[in-house]
Design a protein that fits this description.
The complex is a heteropentamer of chains A (115), B (142), C (95), D (512) and E (589). With 115 residues, chain A is mainly α. Chain A has four helices and no strands. Chain A has one domain: Helix Hairpins (Orthogonal Bundle). In chain A, α2 packs antiparallel against α3 (73-104). Chain A is elongated and about 60 Å long. Chain C has 95 residues and is mainly α. Chain C has a domain at 1-29. Chain C contains five helices and no strands. Chain C has helices at residues 3-26, 36-39, 42-53, 58-66, 68-89. The radius of gyration of chain C is 23 Å and the shape is flat. The two termini of chain C are 45 Å apart. The relative contact order of chain C is 0.05. Chain D has a domain at 282-512. Chain D has helices spanning 7-28, 33-58, 80-105, 113-132, 136-154, 162-191, 196-204, 210-227, 236-242, 245-270, 280-302, 307-328, 331-362, 373-376, 378-392, 398-413, 415-441, 448-458, 475-493, 496-509, and strands at 61-64, 75-78. In chain D, α6 packs across α9 (236-242) and α8 (210-227) packs antiparallel against α10 (245-270). Chain D is mostly helical. The two termini of chain D are 33 Å apart. Chain E folds into three domains: 1-234, no CATH class; 239-485, no CATH class; 505-587, no CATH class. Chain E has helices spanning 2-5, 10-20, 26-45, 71-88, 95-113, 117-136, 141-172, 185-198, 205-210, 218-237, 242-260, 265-286, 289-320, 336-350, 356-371, 374-400, 414-432, 435-438, 452-472, 488-502, 519-526, 532-552, 564-587; strands at 50-57, 60-67. A two-stranded antiparallel sheet of chain E has the order 1-2. Classes of the chains: A mainly alpha (115), B mainly alpha (142), C mainly alpha (95), D mainly alpha (512), E mainly alpha (589).
Amino acid sequence: MINLLPPNLPYFICITLLLIGLYTMIIKKSLIKKIMGLNIFSTSVFLFLISMAYRRGGAPPIKAEGVELYVNPLPHALVLTGIVVALALTSFALILVINIYKEHKTLDSEKLTKL
Amino acid sequence: MNPVVIRTVTRILVPFIQLFGFYIIVHGPVSPGGGFQGGVVVGASMILLALAYGAHEAESKVSHHVRIAMDSLGSLAYAGIGLLGIAAGGLFLQYNIIPLPLPPARVNGIMIFLIGVAIGVHIMALVLSLFLHTTEETEKDD
Amino acid sequence: MNKLNHLLVVIVLLAIGVMMSIAVLEMPEFADPDAPIHRHVAPRYMAMSYQETGVPNMVTAILADYRGYDTLGELTVIFAGGVAVLSILGGKRKK
Amino acid sequence: MNISQHFPILVIITLFTGAYLAPLAGLWKRKLCYPLAVLSALLSFLFSVVILLSVLEHGIIRYHVGGWEPPWGIELLVDPLSAFMALIVSFIGLLAVVYSKDYIAGEIPDKKLPAYYSLLQLIIGGMLGALMTGDLFNLFVMTEIFSISAYALVSIAQKKGSLIASYNYLILASVGTTFILFSTGFIYMVTGSLNMVDISQRLSALESPWVMYNGLILLVIGFAIKSALFPLHTWLPDAHSIAPSPVSVLLSALVIKVGAYSIIRSVFTVFGPGLLEQSGVVTIPVTWMASLGILLGSIYAITQTDIKRMLAYSSVAHIGYILLGIGLASTASMTGGIFHILNHALGKACLFFCAGAVLHKTGIRNVEEYTGLAGKMPITMIAFTLAAISLVGIPPTSGFMSKFYLAIGAYQESWIFLAVILLGSLLSAVFYFRVINLIYFGEPEHKSGVREQGAEIGGVVHRQPTTDNRREAPLTMLIPIIILALGSTLFGILVHIPLSVVEPAVKLLLGM
Amino acid sequence: MIEHVLPVPPAALFIVGALLIPLLKGQLRKIFLLFIPIVAFVNLLYLPQGTYWTYHFVGFDLIFGRVDSTSLPFGYIFVIMAFLGALYAIHVKESSEHIAAFILVGASLGAVFAGDYLSLYLFLAIMTVSSAFLVFSRRRKSATDAGFRYLIFHFFGGSLLLAGIILYYISTGNLYFGLLEGNELYLYLILIGFLVKAAVPPFHTWLTDAYPEGTATGSVFLSAFTTKTGVYLLVRAFPGTEILIWLGAIMAVYGVVYAVIENDGRKLLAYSIISQVGYMVAAAGLGTQMAINGAIAHALCHILYKALLFMGPGAVLQVTGREKLTELGGLFKAMPVTFWLFMVGGVSISGVPFFNGFVSKTMIIASAGLQGEAVVYVLLLLASVGTFLHTCLKLPYYMFFATDRGIKAEEPPRNMLMSMGLTAFLCLFIGIYPAILYNILPYPVDFVPYTTEKVVEKIALLSFTLLGFWLLKDKIAGQPTISLDTDWFYRKAGPAFMWFCRNPASVFASWKDLAYAKICFAFILLFRHNSPELLLTAEKRVIQSRERRQLASRQPAPLDSLTIGFSIFMFTFIVALFLLLLVFGKLVP
């Protein structure tokens, strides 16, 4: 196991980030922090996609003379899309939170529970 | 707080930021970048303007109506380019069949460029909208 | 949230982590040039995208041409986000 | 070149274009938004009718967007199942748009109308996109489109608590979509492809299945969150009950079905007939969760007083039926499950429309105030009865037939599932007949004293139906209700029509 | 001309007719209500024997017309009963009651002529709903509750039946409804489904619960159709099943025992239905040709005289608004015609010679004797004595004589009397000319009812009973209480179930759903326990909560609390569960 760990370390980091994101969303009471947790969570996925695209000795995926080995461009495109989706989600969630705060004057999910 | 420094720096920086943003949009096909990235940069320049001069400044430069129009038209332009493929007898979003007096690969390049611009227009308006609407009423409370 | 719940959450999350790690151990090695993702679909983009689309930036080529439909969807997502924000705030900014 | 070959993409693009146009039209004339939305929904409905017919005639449609062949470009894959679902979605979507005109006028301020219609078209278009696509990542994108529109539509009326409901929905469903993206990464990692058909071919040649299983599990759970499978349903009751009624219809009748459809796709198409044996890893737990959902969803529904909340909980139970049928993965159970998608869509849409009509005309949400509404809104209430009877599963309505197939399939697996289905019907009879009883035989509260006395004396009291207090909803609301009620009754008699689509779809999915 | 129009499916005639009722008003509707049964009767006369109206329905064969000598007699009597019931109820202005009644008739006819399980289930389900609606039509809290229990009970029976049908379909591959033999599981499920319809104890509580709660006119319909359809189903599917003999015999006595101590007039009659159906069930269990003949003949006769018996207290209820025997008495002066007509029913049910009960009941008892079932023979005989005691003596005595409570009363409306008269005439007619009944039975009848021996035996028995009653009449007076029956189970089960819904089951729901405790009141009433105190407090609470609700009802329902953290924990837990299953499913093959 020790031998196997270093090569796939980025993936382990992604999974760790994923767990951190989930943990934040479960434990933290502030609505904003839940959104942060969501963002960590989705970032871990982007990181996962991007790190799988890397290829030892690969050049950036822009066509250049004499270069044959590029990193995989497809996950990059996917991650771009994913980031934009996360942006839309986050912005909407934040606006909801702003309005929730205006309405209830609190962002603590425990307190909102008792409404 | 004295906003003079911020305002001056902003006034100087904004044109350059915007220029850089347009550069990113336009050079999407050949270098890292593209419509999304450039659009965000241009939008961010407007946000900077709003931060330094207040939301009204940004509002007066790009009003609500204009932003909505840019949003819709950007998206419509993308869908329209896609429909051009059908109109030309190909498939949806098929560029190389669009009848331009150029080799097919060049047509693709032009369409990719146009799409980048459409996305850029859409995103720059949207980013500004998001910012302005988010801050809208909190500002009033201050 | 009391300590017990806290512990429970951590245990469950760690369980997921451990079990996903089993999958990670079976994954193709990181940065392996011969991983399946580098062998199946991607080679065509690297070899042909410039000839087929006339654009040297492969990411842009994929984004706007090969998977242009995805990008249309993406644009629609962000459009939906914008409209969603408008719908919460009720349109016009008051002067 | 034949234009009809482009219908799979046009059915989506029409709605998206309509959605893009709505804010623009709102700048010019707000009244224009409604006809535009109706027009685009109508067009896409007509397109999907043509698609269904041509799929039945010529087999699977594959549309290569942008002209790129599948593993490189995105492919639209329309098989009988997706065409069937697309027809349901676009039809009920059209009805919801039509219904919105008068209903929404009282619910949201005028200046939000463009945003409302735009989101309405986006949610329908997103669902159609998710149904038609043959690409895993595109499925994720389309799922996000309809999800974001759904979150926004939940909170659009700015009722008390709607923001919190929307926030809950957003966060929980986003966890689901992120799971989906994560599993897309897993699957892409081991296959190098995003095309569903391509993936299924390459997966069956795979030697080490752990990554694949992880991907499958995350994919199914992600979509199970979207479809509100039982313990993952916590976002549903709030979101579905607080949303404006046309939106409730879309959410309850369609959105969760699209989630169920995506589970079907991921289990049977992505993991393919070749791996059907192994996919028991997910289908077996899914059947147990669905069984729990049938029972507990109905039990929760019994304890509700708010009609829309009751209907929302009943949706939890019904998604249980659908996923039970899918999870059992036999011919009969799959037929029942997929057929139940249609029946529940028709029935639940009708019920939510009726609840909306009542809410619109009288402001009543509480079940116990439904007393004597049959006199005031007879047509609506008859429709409500028919749809409720269909959902309880009493012959000759369509709900019975799907439950019959489901029950046959369930018994082939285990008697427990049969018992669950029958008990679930019994429980749903409790809460639906409670409402029906109140509608027809309950008395308005202020009269109850008089009535009691009269009943004691005469045994029968002659009641003159007063015609002046008849307050049916406007036609735009009444027509969808009537159509759906008729549909959920007639399809019980004309079962062969939906089955002629469902059966080939099931055969295809099970690889027969 | 008529030959070209007729025959049409009898069920369709009534159901379509029922749907047309709301379109008609006034005199036209009255004519229409009587016209439909007449047309249906003519239609039935033209109905040829055989199997037809088959409809290929997605791989199943639905048979809507299996007309043979077993189903035809039931068809005749159902249509006749529909006419009598419609005449009896013709003054009722509310169309909902007529619609429910006609749909009930139509569905019963459909069930009787159904030749496959799917269409049978269809019609039984429609019967259940329409009967429940007839009970609901009383528009009284207790009626609503009873109707609900009726509905749930029958859906429960229907579920078992459906399970049986599915098992049958899976093991045989068809849905043909016919004789069932063997030792399969589906057999028992279907049997229980049918027993619920026939109200065989312990599945009988719905009957005594719901029938007294029907409207005056509705109960007449209710009494005729459901149980007799159940008898038909048993005769059709389970003739000669050993257990039915004992169930039937016990049922006959059981019903009598409860009827004797019952206070509510119509509830007494409901128990007496159980007792009478017991004869038929026992006869179905005997399964000889003569017994089957007896079962069917008794079903036919029973429909007539039981309708007549329900019409009597129904008329009293119509006129006085009272049902309890302890609240009635001395009505004879005001309602002599009603009394005499009622008595025709009373003597019929008791099996007095020259009334129709005699010609059918003796047939069953005799066939039990011929089979050598001595115990059954005695039990049935005993039940017949008890029937005479409670229906023919106790009920009329306390209703029309006994203490005069000075109730203001008059004869009921003319149509009620006409209907009663017609029914009484039919009772007498069949009693005197039994051949007309025997001719339509499925097997040739070589049974002669009027032998000196049988008549003398019967008269002797009845005379002694009469004597006994006269001596003990004050001892068996009804008490204003509710006798405890097996229905305690679900009266208790209801609140227990609701407790379960609210407490353990709601753990996974949302926290705020727990605050919905007030809903329990609706269900305490729904599955009401018969304790007056509990009822009172519940009633009070409902009123209080109603006031509160009226303030809050225009608001959307209270939200679920923010359960994000918990929900996400649930998601992750499910993921972990799946992964665990995967790991252990893999490691341990």
